[in-house]
Amino acid sequence: MKFIRKLGAWTLLYTDRMGVMGVFLGKAFFYAVIPPLKMLRVLKQIRFIGFQSMVVILLTGCFSGMVLGFQGFYSLSRFGSDAFLGPMVGLALIKELGPVITALMVTGRAGSAITAEIGIMRISEQIDALELMGLNPYRYLVVPNLVAAVISLPLLSAVFDVVGIYGGYLTGGKLLGVGAGVYFGEMANYVEMADVLEGLYKSLSFGIIIAWVCCYKGFYTSIFTGFGAEGVSKATTQAVVMSSVLVLIWDYFMTSLLFG
Amino acid sequence: MQRHGKEKILEVKGVRTYYGKAQILFDMTFSIRRGEAAVLLGRNGAGKSTTLKSVMGLVSPKQGEILFKGRSIAGLPTYKICSLGMGYVPEDRRIFAGLTVAENLEVGRRPPRAGFEPWTPERLYDLFPNLQVHKDRLGGRISGGEQQMLTIARTLMGNPELMILDEPSEGLAPVIVDQLAATLENLKQDRVTVLLAEQNLGFAGRICDRAFIVDHGAVCHDSPMHELSAGVCERFLAV
How large is the ipTM? Predict the structure, then answer.
């Protein structure tokens, strides 16, 4: 009986939190489409989420492509199909690895910082102070991150894809001997616009997920994770874990939807 | 001499507020008129701060009605209430410690209101000369009294019609309290309606025209400030 009561209380609590999270996203979208947009804040966040993530994306993109080049070459050469290395690397990066790894990297680098920043503003009552000056905290703190993430993620993902494709050519082509004409020519034959669009849709939706979860966790720090430094650290950890898991789950649904 | 008009700028009717399951306000009812300076007096835990937070939307009342200029504001988010013309100076000041004094003032700037001379940093520096001296210093690096003045000045930058202050004299040296009282008296000349929550009867007496004694989450006595009897003070305010 006690177990059922606990289970009921837990269900109610988490249903309530999911509702709060849904309303949070709804408000963020609402204020994102109703002017005025805080353009300076948006540009600042594009610089933070996008430009400052570039080094991480270049490194991970290059090495992911190089690993794909190796693994792809050894797998395909067993079937005598090493000429298809280019399309394999290209499709894997554009449709899947580019958007997903970019999202995970941005979550770790920028998402955690966004949660920590908003969380500290919450526990030091600066969000209340903003409200007391008549400033809408959604417009000021949440919308710029949402818009910046939606703009930055597809661009970062594109950079990741390009660098990864060249990384794959470095190993598959330069080291293992697949010719540049074969590598890039077959890629051009098999990679279609629909594949590029699939990657684009995924990165757009991952941008929304990262901004939503990370802003939400920071915004409700003192309510859901407790006060003080401990509350902020918990919120940050939860934001990174939840964003990463949601990105992977949503990736599955997007893939099955786009395949369908 | 009474400068205030007949229009009620704020009406609080039967407000009941809870923190979790604990009820803090029990049918809190009072109203203040435009241009008036009123004070909620009461002991610690009487419900003064919760009343102000309920008015500002920082806590949500479960029952009752709050009208600002005749419009219901119960349930509105705090930033909307503030943009209607209310300014709130919290007990814990909430200045932006990482911004300079001048930047803190700029953050609070709102469009001017019709019929009121807009507040500008220059006008505020006249009112608070200490802030001008420290205008390039970080908010976290000025004294407690100056931080209190900065919070009031920042709130005034929003050009409020009703200024709500939660225990502004709390923790300040007597000389600063005197300066603050003089400043709030000046605000009254500028037709800003003032609502204070205070325990310092002397301070409130210098500024306010009207007193509401709060006890156990409700107003138990309402009179002009000068008619507040020693008996009432002894009964409801003595520790």
Answer: 0.74
